[in-house]
Amino acid sequence: xxxxxxxxxxxxxxxxxxxxxxxxxxxxxxxxxxxxxxxxxxxxxxxxxxxxxxxxxxxxxxxxxxxxxxxxxxxxxxxxxxxxxxxxxxxxxxxxxxxxxxxxxxxxxxxxxxxxxxxxxxxx
Amino acid sequence: xxxxxxxxxxxxxxxxxxxxxxxxxxxxxxxxxxxxxxxxxxxxxxxxxxxxxxxxxxxxxxxxxxxxxxxxxxxxxxxxxxxxxxxxxxxxxxxxxxxxxxxxxxxxxxxxxxxxxxxxxxxxxxxxxxxxxxxxxxxxxxxxxxxxxxxxxxxxxxxxxxxxxxxxxxxxxxxxxxxxxxxxxxxxxxxxxxxxxxxxxxxxxxxxxxxxxxxxxxxxxxxxxxxxxxxxxxxxxxxxxxxxxxxxxxxxxxxxxxxxxxxxxxxxxxxxxxxxxxxxxxxxxxxxxxxxxxxxxx
Lengths: 124, 298
Hints:
- Chain A is α/β, with parallel strands linked by helices.
- Chain A contains one helix and nine strands, in the order H-E-E-E-E-E-E-E-E-E.
- Chain A is globular, with a radius of gyration of 14 Å.
- Chain B contains seven helices and twelve strands.
- Chain B has helices spanning 2-13, 64-73, 95-109, 123-126, 132-138, 167-178, 208-215; strands at 19-24, 39-45, 81-85, 117-120, 143-147, 150-154, 185-189, 220-225, 232-236, 239-243, 276-282, 287-293.
- In chain B, the strands form two sheets. Chain B has a six-stranded mixed sheet with strand order 1-12-11-2-3-4, with no helix packed on it. A six-stranded mixed sheet of chain B has the order 5-6-7-8-10-9, with no helix packed on it.
- Classes of the chains: A alpha/beta, B alpha/beta.
- Chains A and B meet through loops of A and loops of B.
């Protein structure tokens, strides 16, 4: 139950803060002092595909895609977003538990779709 | 019924079907008024991935489907029907190649000696073009049919690349279910699991919870699906979910390794982990006897 509540808290942060940033669109710029990690998706990988974060330290994940519509989903953190061509998508995240969390593309994108994975590593 | 027992005895004597799984609600009082004699069986085939090339996981990728067809044709009593639960072909970014694979697949399975074969797409067949090529060869991606007192519902959770059923199909499903009594025998076929089996490997349907909410009021619902290339049995409330083995390569158990990479071919046990299933339906008892069968007898 505790982990569910924590997951819910992260999700709420992403929904409330992240959605505002997402809706600002591609020319919104970075309206924060928080560190920004740029993640580029293309068939069939993410760069970078290992993201290292510190527990309790806010960060903004900034997504773009070089070709088609992609997804970004971290099931264990309750996070997902579309990555739309021509747009910059941002998610603010405050990881509140250490661990290793796999992420994946959840929009079928072609023959290498199953390889579109990565890992978020949160340390103390 | 006698024929069914003979068939079951044959499977046993032939050394086939070592694993039997019984699913259903035998003894349920709502079954009291059902007519006797509604016993039949069907065969579920899944995930043939025609066009796949990967010698390390299946050096006989160009011959395994034909062996499965031969195995089904050798059954002593033909099934009432066969259902393919998706990923008939392996995905390709080339639309012409996709159609070539679908045509070749259709040619191979046309050799099945059975009156009725039901198809549905997997994401490899349909997600890149919203099912356009698939429909040219096999028609609708979601539909229903009735057989000997059982209502079968084929769902499409792959033509939308987000792995969603979508509002249109959900409304169609709701209308179909509304016409049934609450104790109707309902079997659902889908490619992806309708519950969150292991979302970390994309083993889920984004709006599968909405499907399950629609099905929940019905007492006798069983789901057969594919996608995960292995047997898995799960309950959501009273609804049973049974995934099938693949006809091309097995995948690891959910979360058992960092990535969902196919399990390597074992030359000492060729075709290990592959197979199909025989499902014996007792409509009177709303009972499903599942027997897993190998492609090649070991």
